[in-house]
Design brief:
The chain has 76 residues and is mostly helical. It has three helices and no strands.
Length: 76
C-alpha cells in the first residue's frame, strides 16, 4: 500500500502535505486568526518586592513557600 503513513516523502512533499492539512483543519474549525501585532520592546517592569508578593499571594502562602524547602511547581 502506498499511503502517507508507510511511504517516504521528500522534505518539500512533507511541507506541502503539512500546509494542505493545516488549510483543511482551519477550514473545518472555522478558526479566525488575528493579524500579527509586534511585541513592544524596551519597558520591563521592576521586580516585585516581598511586601508586594505577600499582598498578591497572601502572607501565609508566601511564608509557606519560603520555609517549605520543597521544589515549587514547574508549571507555575
Amino acid at each position: 500500500m502506498n499511503t502517507p503513513e508507510n511511504s517516504q516523502m521528500t522534505v518539500e512533499e512533507a511541507e506541502k502535505y503539512g500546509r494542505q492539512m493545516d488549510a483543511k483543519n482551519r477550514a473545518l474549525e472555522k478558526t479566525h486568526y488575528l493579524d500579527e501585532t509586534p511585541v513592544k520592546q524596551g519597558k520591563v517592569s521592576q521586580p516585585l518586592s516581598e511586601e508586594e508578593i505577600k499582598k498578591r499571594t497572601g502572607s501565609g502562602n508566601f511564608e509557606n513557600a519560603q520555609d517549605s524547602g520543597s521544589m515549587g511547581s514547574i508549571n507555575s
